[in-house]
Known about the structure:
Distance between the termini: 28 Å
Mean pLDDT: 96
Low-confidence stretches: none
Largest sheet: 4 strands, antiparallel
Helix content: 40-55%
Strand order of the largest sheet: 2-3-1-4
Structural class: alpha+beta
Number of helices: 6
Shape: elongated
Number of strands: 4
CATH topology of the largest domain: Alpha-Beta Plaits
Amino acid sequence: MEIDEKNRQILRELERNGRISNLELAQRVALSPSACLRRVQELERSGVITGYRAVIDRDKTGAGFVTYVAVGLLEHTKSAQEAFERAMEAAPQVRECHNVAGAFEYLLRVEVADLAAYKAFHTDILGTVKHVNSITSYVVMESPKDERK
């Protein structure tokens, strides 16, 4: 599927508000409602748009303490990586797990209620995962730009 400038405009608007009506979306991108709907449906069918989701205020759900965690592994084997990834998949505190290039193997986004809850995650979950060699925590104090919101 070709991603032309109109499709880019549609994608930008849907990223800002996935619940926008087709009529409003069409007006914002200067298309007829039927042409706009066809484009959105084609973006969905082709897999460019993979889903829609709600943006949640984590403070109001009791998970507003956010930490990015850099994790280094003892072994750089496929089995060590797979075991680590399974452990992170099973941990509800881990909202994102990225295998990265650089000084460490993984970057996690962890969301919990508070510092005590993070300490419990750090000690009882992350600290018990086989192959973990190093853990470096970066506590988020503020997010002046977060396009997921």
